[in-house]
Specification:
The chain has 6 helices and no strands. By secondary structure, it is mainly α.
Length: about 130
């Protein structure tokens, strides 16, 4: 066929590029695993829900306000620790599916010691 030989290198490069992209995309172990941002969002939602359900008396309002003010920084610390210490897909999935803080904390027990330490280091100092 005339010209067929001249197209082979282009076709071959295209096929190799496609194969590499497919292979790299296929490296994800669990594409259904939620990202760390979803873990932080779940923490934030559960915390806000728990605060809303609490019926504070007058003396608790200042404390409640202080906790509410810290929630964005706490959420961001969780996202940072999750990302930096590479929490597993199973842990992230567990955390995102947690229905309350008891379940969320139970999922956190699946973290390695190093990951828990990273989370502790990332957490904001409540005295500031």
């Amino acid at each position: 066929m005339p010209g067929a030989g001249s197209e082979n290198p282009v076709v071959s490069r295209a096929l190799i590029t496609f194969a590499l992209l497919a292979a790299l995309g296929g490296c994800k172990r669990n594409p259904d695993a939620p990202p760390c941002g979803a873990v932080g969002a779940t923490f934030f939602t559960l915390s806000n829900d728990a605060l809303a359900k609490a019926t504070p008396d007058r003396s608790d309002r200042d404390l409640r306000r202080a906790v509410e003010d810290q929630l964005p920084a706490m959420r961001d610390a969780i996202v940072h620790a999750c990302t930096e210490s590479k929490w597993s897909a199973d842990v992230r999935k567990c955390l995102v599916q947690a229905k309350d803080h008891v379940a969320f904390e139970a999922c956190e027990q699946q973290l390695s010691d190093a990951q828990r330490q990273a989370l502790d280091r990332a957490a904001p100092d409540p005295t500031n």
